[in-house]
Design brief:
Layout lengths: L15 H20 L3 E2 L5 E3 H8 L4 H6 L1 E4 L5 E4 L4 H10 L8 E10 L11 E10 L5 H17 L4 E7 L3 H17 L6 H9 L13 H5 L10 H17 L4 E2 L11 E9 L7 E7 L3 H4 L7 E7 H10 L11 E6 L1 H17 L5 E3 L6 H11 L3 E6 H5 L2 E6 L7 E4 L3 H13 L1
Parallel strand pairs: 1-5, 7-8, 12-13, 12-14
Antiparallel strand pairs: 2-4, 3-4, 5-6, 6-11, 7-9, 9-10, 10-11, 14-15, 15-16
Helix pairs in contact: 1-5, 5-9
The structure holds adenosine-5'-triphosphate and magnesium ion (MG).
Length: 427
């Protein structure tokens, strides 16, 4: 036998039995985003490698070791997007969408990071990504966070909590950086290899270390919040007031830094205790410097990305996965003429009842087989098209989910009869 081709580690198939909960999340998010005035944008999955190096930062985990980078046939270095913001900002600049206007955009799709695959951490994973570009906040910061809180409520997700922090401006961060480097130097012998390397390149990232042995040292580190510039402090205080006023609960976590370099001021993360180590389900923040950094007009902006696989898992755990949708009607065909007519009559029925799910028995089978399929399909009604009845211009209908006999009906009336029977069964 020919050897089967294996799937790629960390890249998952979403099977039909699982798709309902994905679609439920996607349609709920779509609805809320539209209600807040966000518009969808679709950007390529592949970009020039330089875009991500410049946007995300050379000394981040993502750029240092997680990117899927390759040289294409033309010799260009390209990268499968590890996150969406860089590509969206690139698109906004290259299409000249800015020019003094403000943009509220969202994008959904797969991202790629070469991480160690485990539960909740994959190499291809999906994000719903939302960006508000041209707004300095803090009003938009509060609104964006309120939007995420509304989505949890709509989805029925309760086991999440919000953490917020301010990273200040690049200037205030430089001052803080010095304090931090001094502190970590005092403990240099206890730093792991990654952290020692970062001490030079990106000391703030040490705070985000996933190594449990680093926890104690990190816990003693000076706090960024103690070095905030007055404007960032005021921005953050107003955000806190606004969140309290709209009734979104939060904790200030002064050690919350984000994995990507481009953040300034407000950062936030929704975390859960329901998914083990992979506890972040939605993360975001303000990136006031990024657009200029990528060659656009200086423009303030804020955004977040939601990890779809992790939210899907929360929905499954909370029993919020919608049941698979069964057909309303299963069409059974019996006899040579009926089999020939089956496709035509079913198509006419679909014309008449465009919102009904109607499944035609395909590929033959005797009466018993077809009824077994009808039953397994979960359909509420069977429509039976038989040669004898057809000769008289009739078909038959049989409820499948209740004890009730088969009844005949003229072909011309079948659509209205089906509607009546489906409505009747619901009562
Ligand atoms: P983590 O701390 O879990 O590595 P991150 O800080 O790298 O997350 P972001 O880059 O902010 O994550 O991405 C936003 C969201 O995307 C995360 O909150 C998480 O829900 C999801 N996410 C990130 N990486 C993965 C992954 N490898 N597999 C599945 N979901 C992911
Ligand atoms: Mg990560």
């Amino acid at each position: 036998m020919t050897k089967q081709i294996q799937p790629i580690r960390g890249m998952n198939d979403v099977l039909p039995s699982e798709i309902g909960v994905w679609q439920y999340l996607e349609s709920s998010a779509r609805e809320i985003l539209a209600a807040y005035g966000y518009e969808e944008i679709r950007v390529p999955i592949v970009e020039h490698t330089d875009l991500f190096k410049r946007a995300i930062g050379e000394f981040t985990d993502v750029v240092e070791k997680e990117m899927y980078t390759f040289t294409d046939q033309g010799g260009d270095s390209l990268t499968l997007r590890p996150e969406a913001t860089a590509g969206i900002v690139r698109a906004v600049i290259s299409n000249g969408l800015l020019r003094g206007s403000r943009l509220k955009l969202w994008c959904a799709g797969p991202m790629f990071r070469h991480e160690r695959p485990q539960k909740g951490r994959y190499r291809q994973f999906n994000q719903i990504d939302v960006e508000a570009i041209g707004f300095a906040g803090p009003d938009v910061d509060a609104e964006l966070i309120a939007l995420t809180a509304r989505l949890w409520k709509k989805l029925g997700i309760e086991r999440v909590r919000l953490q917020i922090n301010s990273l200040g401006t690049p200037e205030s961060r430089r001052v803080y950086r010095e304090h931090l480097v001094n502190y970590f130097r005092q403990h240099e012998s206890r730093l792991d290899a990654d952290s020692r390397r970062r001490l030079e390149s990106n000391p703030l990232r040490i705070l985000d270390s996933k190594n449990p042995e680093m926890r104690e040292i990190v816990a003693g580190a000076p706090l960024l919040t103690e070095h905030l510039d007055p404007e960032s402090r005021a921005h953050f205080d107003t955000l806190c007031v606004m969140l309290r006023d709209v009734g979104v609960e939060f904790e200030v976590n002064p050690r919350l830094v984000r994995g990507l370099d481009y953040y300034t001021r407000t950062v936030f993360e929704w975390i859960t205790d329901a998914l083990g180590a992979q506890d972040a389900v939605c993360s975001g923040g303000r990136y006031d410097g990024l657009i200029a950094q990528l060659g656009g007009e200086p423009t303030p902006a804020i955004g977040f990305a939601m990890g779809v696989e992790r939210v899907v898992e929360l929905l499954v755990q909370a029993g919020r996965a919608p049941a698979r949708q069964a057909p309303d009607v299963y069409v059974v065909v019996s006899g040579e003429l009926a089999t020939k007519q089956g496709v035509v009559l079913t198509e006419r029925l679909r014309d008449a009842l465009p919102h009904r799910r109607i499944e035609l028995n395909l590929g033959g089978g005797n009466f018993k087989t077809q009824f077994r399929r009808a039953d397994r399909s979960g359909a509420r009604l069977a429509l039976i098209i038989g040669d004898d009845e057809l000769g008289r211009g009739m078909v038959a209908l049989k409820p499948l989910r209740e004890e009730s006999g088969q009844s005949e009906c003229p072909i011309a009336e079948v659509a209205s009869r089906i509607e009546a029977m489906l409505a009747d069964g619901r009562r």
